[in-house]
Design brief:
heterodimer; A: mainly alpha; two-stranded antiparallel ribbon; 24 helices; B: alpha/beta; five-stranded parallel β-sheet; 9 helices; 9 strands
């Protein structure tokens, strides 16, 4: 029997031209991301190799004295370790308890708005936390101990605890929510109490994700520059004897980030071994933060090998009630923080709600409004949006579809690393490349591009996460109709990812808008920027976060502090608007298939 | 179905019971009574509220649903069941698809036991082993009690879930479509286990499978 196949009419007819901009978009996304990663790595590596770095001396000695050639970062490592230890010691138990209360104990009707509140806290720009540190935590520490001014490791640790708490809660709740409801029911029907269900059935499955939450919190704490900078006192060489370690928490210190955030890296006299030592500090920072971010973002498919076994207790029901009460109490703390933050902003920064504050230019050291700063921030964010939308989308599509699994893993790692680079290093790399190498000096374009690097990983990862949920059947159905890869992306993936791209862009921009550290050296001045830049080279802008930063350092002057609070309110309102715009997009995302 | 005379020791007694949302009735009204030691089948098409009724018996009613009528479980009225964990330990529910906890086969068999019963580990182990025997799983797992439970086949897992409930020595066993997630071979093995359960226990079996209910149950109630 012969099987005759009619050579298909549809297959041989002229096809519509496949959309050629799709490969271009994904290539641009991949290349731009690779370029950004290489730029940061290249900046650090070039710096380290520009002089001799004695790594042993760097890590073990405390004296940092550039003129005499002594470069010991021991005190900075101690400072970083100490502030992070304080932050995690306070934030982890509260954060974990609160997340269990949110996910396991409160009815969803109540838990859902509380979760949104916590996410809101996580999105508050770090400069605002820095301002809280200056205005509240520093006086508190100064009053509690005998610390003149209150600048201390303790103050920095407290500020960081407040900053990492929302991250820990939000990520832990996600981990708990991923445990199937059937697991809880299977334990409940055996007669376990609520607490026993959590401990023996839910936590063994959620624990890897809750540990990841701590790693991400740690990454945030180690990499934070601005908020720590304002309250730590930035005193070099303070490496206490082990016996005095505890009391040294009440004295000023220095961390890896605050060293790099100071003027040293960008001074004209910084070259040779001095530059190499600073770059080595940057490398330590990069390795720690990127490492913690990567470890925290790993997908937890690992089997649970060993389970902790719990035995029946006396007073099962009383214990159950007591533990529940403690967890409920833990949820109160993030809420108190949210309310306190709102009250602080509104009471001290009420001026920021006046229209005149938005429309008048700044005057002198601390007077006037913030018209120029708003315009500058809008310009920077617009540049960041224009760049990060195509790049982030291209990268997200590349991650979601194009790359084979091996290449995809490498790309994902690169994206996560980029998202995990401490922003102070982004700022310094941007300064080295745009301001010095390209000769732009301080320029709005340099600032916008650095902020785009902040937003791109957020856009890309949100897009990929959405594409991962696409049912393979839908993709297959399109392929079965003979669509090319580009056509599948154009007609199946892109429409499906669209709401996620928008959400990711808004979230990324909200984060970028509040960033201070990347702008300090690359783009902003306190005063004297032109209203509309007339070129690229030497065209700085004024921006809201750096304005707050400059004013907050002048904490002795009440007028400066008042103006800082007002500016912070404007910044929070603007980032809040971006987040608010993301909410309906996200709701549509969760509602649609 | 035989007569509705209520023996004094009924483990479950339902009188004109309705399961409903605010808008409509999902199941019932139904009246039945399960005498101690009897195996009673609740039969009805998918989605008619059988599983919901079974969950309601141990206080696991999904939000938004209510139960009307009079319902007694193990001698206590449903609206005053006492501490729910105690009720659930003596009225074991086994669900449609098996859920095993992380850990070994023995860990799973002892999972409820070690929380609910204060006794030396050796005693708990003995009870778990007896339960594995009653569930018809012992012969297959006796030489690998410490290997991870998620390596078992789906039919074995379902019997492990049964053993986990049996280890608590429940007076009442609530089986919710215990074989609907299984293939034909696994179904036969699980059915054999159910048929071999101790006659001391009252069994309430929910199923959409007419033949299964007929094979296993002394009485059948149509929903």
């Amino acid at each position: 029997m012969t099987l005759l196949v009619e050579r298909g009419t549809a297959a041989s007819a002229a096809r519509p031209r496949p959309p050629s901009w799709i490969p271009a978009l994904t290539a641009a996304g991949g290349l731009a991301t690779a370029a950004a990663v290489l730029l940061v790595l290249g900046f650090v590596v070039a710096g380290v190799t520009s002089g001799d770095v004695d790594w042993v001396e760097l890590i073990t000695t405390r004296t940092w004295d550039a003129p005499s050639g002594a470069f010991g970062a021991g005190a900075m490592l101690w400072g970083t370790a100490a502030v992070c230890a304080i932050a995690l010691t306070l934030a982890v138990p509260v954060g974990w308890s609160a997340s269990i209360a949110l996910s396991e104990q409160l009815p969803p009707r109540i838990a859902r708005p509380l979760r949104s509140g916590v996410e809101l806290l996580a999105a508050v720009p770090s400069i605002v936390y820095g301002l809280v540190g200056v205005a509240v935590v520093r006086p508190f520490v100064s009053g509690a101990g005998d610390v003149p001014g209150g600048d201390s490791l303790l103050a920095a640790g407290l500020v960081l605890a407040v900053m990492v708490l929302p991250t820990i809660v939000a990520v832990s709740v996600d981990a708990l929510a991923a445990v199937p409801a059937a697991t809880r029911e299977a334990a409940l029907v055996l007669g376990l109490t609520r607490r026993e269900v959590v401990r023996s059935a839910v936590l063994p499955l959620a624990r890897p994700g809750m540990r990841a939450a701590v790693l991400l919190g740690l990454a945030r704490a180690v990499g934070e520059t601005i908020a720590v900078f304002l309250v730590i006192g930035r005193a070099d060489g303070r490496l206490p004897d082990p016996a005095a370690a505890l009391s040294s928490l009440l004295s000023p210190g220095q961390t890896l980030t605050t060293k790099l955030g100071g003027p040293e890296p960008v001074l004209a006299g910084t070259f040779g071994d001095h530059r190499a030592a600073l770059s080595a500090v940057g490398m330590l920072l990069l390795v720690t933060v990127a490492g913690a971010t990567l470890a925290g973002s790993r997908r937890h498919r690992s089997r649970v090998h060993r389970v902790r076994l719990f035995r029946a207790r006396r007073l099962r029901f009383a214990t159950d009630r007591a533990v529940t009460a403690v967890r409920m109490a833990a949820i109160v703390l993030p809420l108190v923080l949210l309310v306190a933050l709102a009250v602080l902003l509104l009471s001290r920064g009420a001026v920021g709600l006046l229209p005149s504050f938005w429309t008048t230019p700044a005057l002198g050291a601390s007077g006037g409004g913030v018209r120029g700063q708003i315009a500058g921030t809008v310009l920077l964010v617009a540049v960041a949006a224009a760049v990060s939308l195509p790049v982030g989308l291209g990268l997200g599509l590349l991650l979601g579809e194009y790359a084979g699994s091996g290449a995809r893993g490498a790309l994902r790692t690169a994206t996560l690393t980029l998202g995990g680079v401490p922003t102070i290093l982004l700022g310094l790399a941007g300064y080295a490349f745009f301001s010095t190498f390209l000769g732009w000096g301080k320029s709005w374009l340099a600032g916008g591009l650095v902020l785009a690097v902040v937003a791109v990983p957020v856009v890309a990862l949100t897009t990929t996460a959405r594409l991962d949920q696409l049912s393979p059947a839908r993709r297959e159905a399109a392929q079965a109709l003979g669509l090319t890869r580009s056509q599948v992306i154009r007609s199946v993936l892109l429409p499906y990812a669209r709401p996620a791209v928008l959400t990711g862009l808004l979230l990324g921009l909200a984060r970028a808008a509040g960033e201070t550290a990347p702008l300090l050296f690359t783009a902003t001045v306190f005063a004297g920027a032109a209203a509309v830049p007339s070129g690229i080279v030497q065209q700085p802008v004024q921006a809201l976060p750096t304005h707050v930063f400059a004013l907050a350092q002048d904490a002795a002057d009440p007028a400066a502090l008042a103006s800082a609070w007002g500016t912070a309110v404007v910044l929070v309102v603007l980032t809040g608007l971006l987040l608010l715009a993301a909410v309906p997009a996200r709701r549509r995302l969760e509602g649609s298939s | 179905m035989t007569g509705t005379a209520v023996p004094p020791g009924a483990a479950v007694q339902a009188d004109r019971v309705l399961v409903r949302t605010r808008e409509r009735v999902l199941a019932g009204p139904v009246s039945f009574s399960a005498a101690s030691g009897a195996t009673v089948g609740l039969r009805g098409p998918s989605g008619c509220g059988k599983s919901t009724l079974l969950r309601a018996l141990v206080g696991l009613l999904p939000a938004g649903l209510t139960v009307e009528g009079t319902l007694h479980v193990l001698g206590r009225p449903l609206d005053d069941p006492g501490p729910l964990p105690q009720l659930r330990a003596s009225a074991g529910l086994v669900g449609q698809s098996p859920v095993v906890f992380p850990g070994s086969i023995l860990d799973n068999a002892m999972f409820g036991l070690r929380h609910v019963v204060r006794a030396p580990r050796a005693t708990l182990r003995e009870r778990a082993v007896a339960a594995l025997e009653e569930a018809g799983l012992w012969a297959e797992v006796q030489d690998r009690l410490d290997s991870p439970a998620d390596q078992l086949s789906v039919g074995q897992r379902q019997r492990l879930c049964l053993a986990r409930a049996l280890a608590l020595d429940p007076q009442l066993l609530l089986l919710d479509e215990p074989t609907s997630a299984l293939d034909a071979d696994a179904r036969d093995v699980v059915e054999a286990s159910i048929a071999g359960l101790s006659r001391r226990r009252t069994v309430l079996l929910v199923s959409h499978d007419v033949d299964q209910v007929r094979r296993l149950c002394d009485e059948v109630v149509d929903l």
